[in-house]
Amino acid sequence: MLGSSKQSEAHTLRGATDRPALLTIRDIIEEMEPLATAELDDYLNPSVLAVSIDDGLCGAEEARLDIQWTTQDDYKYHYTDTEGVNIRWGSHPHGGDYIHVPGLEHYHPPPTASSKPDEVEKSCITQTPEVLVTRAVLKLWRVAYHTESYEPLNAGSNPP
Amino acid sequence: MNDRAPPEEFADINEAVGEEWVSETTPYERIRHIIAHTYSPTSADAVADTARTAPKTARKHLNTLADEGFVKTTTGEHGGTLYRRSPESLVVEQAADILEQLSTDELATRIQEMREQLNEFQSEFGVDSPEALAVDQTNQTLSDSGSPDSEIDSETIREWKTLRRNLAFANAALSIGNAERFVDGDRRSVDDSVPV
User: Fold this and answer.
1) So what's the ipTM on this one?
2) Contact yes or no for A15 and B94 at CB 8 A
3) Are B13 and A140 a contacting pair at CB < 8 A?
4) Which pTM does this prediction carry?
């Protein structure tokens, strides 16, 4: 899959892909983000909700968000754009590899969505339900989009 | 192209989206939303916490949802009621969604493909289920004789579990779709003779 460089076994999401959750996430995105179109990669046996975005961050013309969600609420939201910038919010066990991440929720920063143990950050998104994680990702993306900066993506706030 | 206004200021993203969600939905909608994808038994207090409602409100709505068959209840270790999504209700919901998109013919073809894929997993690894495969793996690791070659990608185990779950939804959709053709008396079609 896009951007999923070889990772250790300990980093696999727990549980089967949750089709019902992906459908809910699709509906939230379609309702909230006018620039986005969301579609399951395979309608009957999906592994990813593929979201096309008609614009990108910091000068990119188009972008994609690939979303995975499991029955155990592990997830990956992977952003990539036509400028080759990659970013990923995730929540899954990492066997303590990410030294700055005490819990499950983490953030792979741009431009490569780095998986280096000392570069992965603690995520500003700390709630579990897919409705709130999805709303948070969309809002952070919107702030970054309007400020033309990657900084807000994991800042967790939008100061005046 | 679209230049919707930038998001308002906020100090914490979690609070910001939580408050928005609360302002746009009723407590009942939030509880239904949360329990819809809660697959392991959970207390009303925990659901209330996530859904940003009072425990009493959560309990009331969860009990209504249980009466309607959307939620299944069990008794926890300490005698309290625990709630989770009813698997039956989830299967019916997914089947209905699938039938809106695919004809029963298309569905039958895809199910055949998915069954073949499932058989491939079974014959490739020599076990019936992804759980059996995981147990095999653990035993090999414990016996210290596992060569690197025998390591099966945990992503493969996940794909297998996903396929099995989605095949279950698809099978339910096909059964319901076929049954409806013969139960719905007003929609008597000319192809009554087509074997199911």
Assistant:
1) 0.91
2) no
3) yes
4) 0.90
